[in-house]
Write the structure tokens for this entry.
Amino acid sequence: MKFVRFGAPGSERPGVLDDEGRIRSLAGVMDDVAGEALSRLGDINPSDLPVVEGDPRIGPCVGGVGKFIAIGLNFSDHAEEAGMEPPSEPIVFMKATSSICGPNDGITIPRGSEKTDWEVELGVVIGKTAKYLSADECLDCIAGFCIVNDVSERAYQLERGGQWTKGKSCDSFGPVGPWLVTPDEVGNPQNLDMELKVNGEVMQTGNTSKMIFEVGHILSYLSQMMTLHPGDIIATGTPPGVGMGMKPPQFLAAGDVVELSIDKLGTQRQDVTAD
């Protein structure tokens, strides 16, 4: 099934898509697509729920996010275009939860930024509290999958010292959604086509089969170091075609339009503006 959160920013309500693609309201069934409710998404029958009328804004597909974790250089062909050696262990960094926004809310370039970049990524949303997982146990703790645009300011990330988090956490740098798609509907997460366009031109194409560390390995690895909680989002890395890898590099400017898609997970569209 495909779960959504709709409504004004900060006041999103829970919903689920029916077989015709209509949003059905989950009011009275759960308070939000968040927390403990993420462990019982399979109990929902959309046909019994009221249809949401109109064309509401689509918000981030999961609420109450405690941790927004990302994995760097996790595609062999992306590491090559970045001129970096493939890592021997997952590169882990955090994105501020304040960067999270809806899938179509837009990207705001920070003041003074000249190197704001795009990254289409497979997002994994945790559904159950988990620690010290084996790779075989990991899929049981996943609530679902979604698209993440790991927007990145490369000068902040790579030229100003310290950790990557600085270039990953600006407001609007974490579009998430449109849907949270349950594992049964996604199937094998290691065989999903990915694409990103800027102004209609294809920049990134790839497939999750190119991940250096697969989803199960990533979750097991993280769970040895920190407890994973319901609502935590893990962005699992990006394929080649990011702006900094081009010759010459190409970055976002006000007026650009970014469009992302991943098999079975829907699409995102962001208009780029300057702060």
